[in-house]
Amino acid sequence: MNKDIFRELKEYFARPPLFEPGEPKFWDDEYISEGMLEAHLNQEYDAASRRIDIIDKETDNLVSSGTLKPGDRVLDLGCGPGLYASRLCRKGMKLTGVDISRRSLEYATRYARDNGLEIEYICADFFDIEYSGEFDVVVQIYGECSTFPEDRLDYLLGKIRKALKLDGQLIFDVSTRAQRRKEGAKNHWYVFDGGLWRPGKHIVLEEGFDYPEHDVWLDQYIVVDDDRIAVYRDWFHDYNLQSITAVLEKAGFNIVQVWNDLTGTPYEEGGDWIAVVARKK
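-> structure tokens emitted (281 positions)
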């Protein structure tokens, strides 16, 4: 192996500083986004989106519990290919979806058009939203709130609070350390002749780094091909009920409902997820 490449690789084997970014162009990368869309729609596993049967149970629970009501104006942040938005629209809500992935939104827009669903989709970074008192509900589902450092989450919650009407609600879920302990460290390497990260031959070095003092975990993917080394990082800030309650209260929200997941499983400590409905103060 070229010594320069080996030297560069060695730098990535050390635990990086907390929330140090990897490659900036990830979700909307021209090639990777195609594989990500396939992963969103794949029903054999739930790496990118939950499977359709689970999504159906989640949306059914949100309506049957009275959390969502026909006529509600709903903002779906990180909507991806519209798997939640399309179902909520069919249940009588008025949907706006925001996502950074152009490819996912092209699919969502085409699906809505072909199925007669009136949904507004916006290709943007949801940190840039500028709404004021327009929505009854904001949803951000499948642990996206766990992927930011707390100061960025605080900033986003401020944007969400501003977007909500008086007494508007935020619905989301966050991962817990119990889930992280089950998944464990990911320290593997693979050789591919085409795959998610690259169309041609490449090597993927997959690593997991734990930051238990911060309840943070990193899944890191080092991708090596003939052209370069690229590092992709998925950060996860895990929460318990006490810590997410404190974050919400600081941002101007009161929790009104907690489940172990959005299908409505009653809350018990030690679950993999915490699903929350919080009301704007």
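Residues 3-30+179-236 form one domain.
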